[in-house]
Here is the input.
Amino acid sequence: MQQFLNTALTGLTLGMVYAAFALALVLIWRSTRIVNFAQAPMAMTTTFVALVVIDAGFSYWLGFVAALLSGLVLGAVLERVVVRPVEGKAEINAVILTLGLFIVLHGLAAVVFGNRYRSFPAPFGLEGLSVGGTTIALNGFGIFTIVSVLLVMALLVALFRFTDVGLRMRASAFNQEVARLLGVKVGSMLTLGWALASLVGSLAGLLIAGGSLVHPSYMDSVVVFGFVAAVLGGLDSPLGAVVGGLVLGLSLSFVSGYVGSQLVALAALVILMLVLTLRPGGLFAQAPERRV
Here is the structure.
């Protein structure tokens, strides 16, 4: 029973980490209709910014804020300078561009920060909590991760459902010409979408890095699992991203704990194939897929 509980709690924390990254993918998709494959190296870069601040002798929280702000700026700059020239053209152009950014940011991070593994601190304890004399696989940082992801999900739902800014972002993503005719500053909305998505991605990078080792490739595997979580829940749904992350995290945790860790990647692929086959729009798709 204790093994089952610990496996479930490990999957819960892991699922929230995947959900954090999936939320960044959902945000960029809802605001620009682009799947940003460069989200992981962008988050990795801002995590190293936090590490530089912390290594300079400042507090973890100052580094935390520095990473989020640098993510906000990085997203806005990349949209304005790199992505803007291909917006409005064939969708594949933007996809290829984000793949190119993936490679470029990796290379730049290796040059600036180095390729060696570095320890990243955590703001809360990493020891399991003691309940009734039994230590469970949930620690202070895990609770911080869960609360952070739920808070971000709630803020994103509020942004897109209850604010004019969210409505303008969605209008700009779906039809730029109509949005312009309605008085929406499309360029500003697209920049804001990239900036906010990069900020959420920065949070995901910090949550993944907490209490572990970081290097320029430390988030590469998260791209796959985060993308599966986003597709599982539905790329249009922040709630779906969290549910997808939880389902994926729990599933992979049980596979690793009871079957074998070597089958985790295969299990993720099977889950992705099942979702794309049975419900292509995701579990929380707002409308059924239409076929022409």
Strands lie at 118-119, 130-131, 134-135, 213-214. The chain has a mean pLDDT of 87. The chain has one domain: 2-219. Residues 2-219 form one domain.
